[in-house]
Write a structure and sequence with these properties.
mainly alpha, 8 helices
Length: 213
């Protein structure tokens, strides 16, 4: 077993552990959008972005939310398959100019960095649900450190297993997740009130950008 395979097993093993043992529910998950209804008695004009998404027609939700999420899942499955079957990248638009030992090593390091950011942020959030987020670990620097870690993880996959499908797929993946973040922040602003809105003003959405109301 080579280094790339070991790193992939660690990275995806930690992801599986996170999803099964330490899940963090998302207000804007695909499940929530499909199966949770907006509160009764609130007009469409009063509803926030997440509530309006929940009220869309099923086929709209399928196209707008399910398909991009399914694509993201498929893209994240490419590296673990490619680690044990390198021929896969040849079918997904090989980028031979990037297939160097140095690029592979850099990608593997970035993969572990991304997973470390996400996994530790999940543990921080689960252990300290009731305290001010702005004073909590990674959440002092980013409102969504777990997602920042996933972006880093994805980019590491692109470098370690370079192919056109992964690089092109990064953009719809980020757009889909960014849309979910905007909906969730809008919903939580209404539900949690001024303390949360103050947090939005003080801490960037990702790292150095995104401080907003």
């Amino acid at each position: 077993m080579d280094v790339a395979q070991i790193v992939i097993l660690i990275a995806y093993g930690s992801l599986l552990l996170e999803l099964v043992v330490f899940p963090i529910p998302s207000e804007a998950s695909t499940y929530q959008i499909f199966f949770e209804a907006a509160p009764d008695g609130r007009s469409t004009s009063e509803a926030d972005a997440l509530e309006r998404a929940r009220e869309r027609a099923p086929w709209v939700k399928f196209v707008r939310f399910f398909l991009p999420t399914a694509l993201g899942v498929l893209l994240f499955l490419v590296p673990p398959v490619a680690a044990f079957w390198p021929e896969l990248t040849r079918y997904l638009g090989p980028l031979t100019g990037l297939e160097t030992p140095g690029m592979r090593s850099t990608g593997l390091f970035v993969i572990l960095l991304g997973r470390a950011i996400t996994f530790t942020s999940v543990l921080q959030l689960r252990r300290h649900k009731e305290i001010d987020l702005a004073s909590l670990g990674w959440f002092r620097f980013s409102r969504n450190p777990g997602l920042v870690g996933m972006y880093v993880f994805y980019l590491g996959n692109c470098l370690a297993f370079p192919c056109l499908a992964l690089f092109v797929g990064f953009f719809p993946y980020v757009l889909n997740m960014h849309t979910r973040v905007l909906m969730e922040e809008s919903h939580l602003s209404r539900r949690l009130g001024s303390p949360y809105r103050d947090y939005l003003r003080r801490v960037p959405r990702y790292l150095f950008v995104g401080t907003s109301k």
